[in-house]
Amino acid sequence: MNTVTQTPTDNNFDISQLTPEQIEQVMKEGKGIVEKKREQAKKAYEHQRDQAVISLLIEARQVMATLADFKEFTHQQMEIQANELKNYGKMNGRSQGGFSIVNTAGDMRVRRRRDTTPQWDERALKAVDLLKEFLMDKVKKRDQKVFEILMGYLEKNKQGDWEYSQAMEFIKHENKFQDERWLEGIRMLKESYSVSLKGFGYEFQFKNKENKWETLNLNFSSL
């Protein structure tokens, strides 16, 4: 007598007619099908993900290369304009390289600005020591609030540098005290400060429908 093997997809499949061994086999086969489909879905997702990452990185590199070329082109063009302005007598004598050019219609503008980094030499360390010594000795007990404010201005940032804005706020209090340590510290702090030119930054602007300047967000700083 011939036996017909039934599968879970058969319309007349009746699990009650199976032996325990057959039920176990069916369950294993079903589990295998589920795992196979899950693995197929995983591979399909990973393939799609990898394709997206690769295509985006290729495009990003091309954009970066184009942006770097455009930055160099901008620099060359603005150098030409700077020289033309000097020859034409329209460059401010006090200008340190920053200027703007506007088209005849007055609705497009390119600006070149100096990007600088504040620097403090070894005299700043001595200056801060003198200033803190004075504040601890003469101000802390007399005016705790002023003491905390001034000491806060002398703190360095997370990178271990003094913030320019903090130092300038501190120097605004120059005439607050007449102690020799205070005056000497302020003098040395001023003398220790300088700026170094990192390069030039550029802004590309146009007037919108409201006749207000809008800036195209092109970031050259990392190039």
From TrEMBL:
<dbReference type="Pfam" id="PF11363">
    <property type="entry name" value="DUF3164"/>
</dbReference>
<dbReference type="InterPro" id="IPR021505">
    <property type="entry name" value="Phage_B3_Orf6"/>
</dbReference>
<protein>
    <recommendedName>
        <fullName>DUF3164 family protein</fullName>
    </recommendedName>
</protein>
